[in-house]
Fold this protein.
Amino acid sequence: MKIAVLGTGIVGQSVAARLYQLGHQVTVGTRDVEATTAHTEPDRYGNPPFPVWARAHPQVRLATFADAAAEAELVVNATAGDASLAVLQAAGRENLAGKVLLDIANPLDNSQGFPPTLFVKDTDSLGEQIQAAFPDAKVVKALNTMNSALMVEPGLLAGGDHSVFVAGNDAGAKKTVTDLLESFGHRDVIDLGDISTARGAEMLLPIWIRLFGALGTPMFQFKIVR
Ligand SMILES: NC(=O)c1ccc[n+]([C@@H]2O[C@H](COP(=O)([O-])OP(=O)(O)OC[C@H]3O[C@@H](n4cnc5c(N)ncnc54)[C@H](OP(=O)(O)O)[C@@H]3O)[C@@H](O)[C@H]2O)c1
């Protein structure tokens, strides 16, 4: 499949690399190709700058958000939550229409320092805001409840015996995303319901962040026992 991964951070890199490894044709989207190609500093989490990753993945093209989305059959939103609506606007409404939009972003507000709060919650979610802003896209929220390494290689922990959620209005789009997740190695994909159920997945972030602090590692996962 032709897939655009919008986002050059660790999530975009991890998802793009795994999709390419699985045989997909992948383009990564960014604001400014030249500027991103010239980065020399590690990101805010200490990950190497994007060009280091790009050199190791020469078959994955870097393009503007719009160019990446235009040629894709499926689009992944792996951008900062507070920038996601602007990024998708830049990607172009027409380039998202009719396509599955896998939304991994979290609505984190880092403006008051650590720990971040959620800038939308309880009565709305980022997934719903994206669906409302782009009604012709088929938004599916997934993978936002775990560390990027586990998103694409769940077997790194407990043999992959843990849970991932999908939320979205379109059954076909959720099936497409579920198939992708299973191709990554996920074995317990739980369909929460329509896109309003993204509220639940996004509101797991406050507990995820506290677990990160308590455990001292991002390598843990939610497992729903039933
Ligand atoms: N890190 C994790 O393990 C993890 C786990 C679960 C969910 N998430 C979520 O996944 C998303 C990506 O996380 P990340 O850590 O990989 O990267 P990030 O630093 O949150 O986001 C990087 C991307 O956001 C774009 N961006 C940032 N500010 C922007 C602005 N003002 N206007 C337009 N674009 C902007 C950047 O564009 P440029 O390419 O142009 O710089 C870049 O592509 C986030 O929503 C995060 O909450 C992360």
